[in-house]
From TrEMBL:
Species the sequence originates in: Streptomyces durmitorensis
Keyword Transferase appears in the UniProt entry: yes
GO biological process: one example: methylation
Protein name: TrmH family RNA methyltransferase
Source superkingdom: Bacteria
Length: 259
């Protein structure tokens, strides 16, 4: 084995079982890599073949190899599969501590803001929510807020977000509690985005896959904004719409401003 340190597997499994119910499951190498890069506390990380995971780190992410070596505990593959039934093909899983709601609300409310907040108004599709969190992380957005019943920390959303929940502030809240800043609500009937500059303190709101923006969000909106779309096409996918809108915001900034 390449690893220089191998803690006791029984201790690691005990910690896993103790914290599993209150932690965020990081499923696979890429999710763990992102969580480490963005400072997530990881109390337990398990692999069926630690050497294979460290070899993957050598190839794909040498910056996290030492941290992985210190964290990862090798356990029998069957034991790992009993804990994580849909184990990722990279054969590694970890549990991370979810940031507190208070810390996220603080980050979302902080002004002046240097990058927009994305709001998903009653989203229904867990995969869409994960893809949006990944976009928000990539563009350096301040955070992603969801309204409605979907849990933005649901394991399927975390899997879709590739561990990037830790790179932005992700919380659920009511429309009445949205962070400060001008609300630009995206709707096919709005003003063409190409004529607008989106400010850094914008709150960019997107409607539900099924029914679009809720009445409450429309009431709260300062601007209704549309993405260019040819006649007879009814709408774009939710995550695609977020990607285009964040790109439009970033295109108004100097290169390198995302750092
Ligand atoms: C799948 S669409 C919702 C379609 C829904 N049937 C409706 O009536 O609006 C999800 C969200 O993506 C955004 N969206 C999709 N296409 C858009 C467009 N051409 N312009 C602005 N926003 C758009 C909107 O925020 C919309 O609520």
């Amino acid at each position: 084995m390449n690893g220089t340190y191998q803690p006791d597997p029984d201790d690691a499994l005990r910690v896993w079982r103790e914290v599993a119910d209150t932690s965020v499951l990081l499923d696979g190498f890429h999710a763990i890599k992102h969580a480490l890069r963005f400072g997530a506390p990881i109390p337990s990380a398990l692999a069926g073949d630690k050497a294979a995971v460290l070899a993957l780190a050598d190839d794909l992410a040498p910056d996290v190899k030492d941290a992985l070596d210190a964290l990862l505990v090798q356990v029998p593959e069957g034991t790992l599969r009993a804990l994580v039934p849909r184990l990722h093909p990279t054969g590694v899983a970890a549990l991370a501590v979810r940031p507190s709601r208070a810390a996220n609300l603080d980050a979302l409310a902080r002004m002046p803001r240097t990058a927009p907040v994305v709001v998903l108004d009653d989203p229904r599709n867990l995969g869409n929510a994960g893809a949006v969190i990944r976009l928000a992380a990539g563009f350096g957005a301040t955070g992603v807020v969801t309204t409605g019943t979907l849990d933005p920390w649901h394991p399927t959303v975390v899997r879709g977000g590739a561990g990037l929940h830790f790179a932005t502030a992700v919380e659920r809240m009511d429309v009445s509690e949205l962070p400060p800043g001008p609300v630009f609500a995206l709707d096919a009937e709005g003003e063409d985005i190409r004529g607008l500059k989106l400010p850094d303190d914008a709150v960019l709101a997107f409607g539900s896959e099924r029914s679009g923006l809720s009445a409450g969000l429309r009431e709260r909106a300062d601007h209704l904004v549309s993405l260019p779309m040819r006649p007879q096409v009814s709408s774009y996918n939710l995550a695609t719409s977020v990607g285009m809108t964040l790109f439009h915001w970033s295109a108004g900034r100097p290169p390198g401003a995302e750092a």
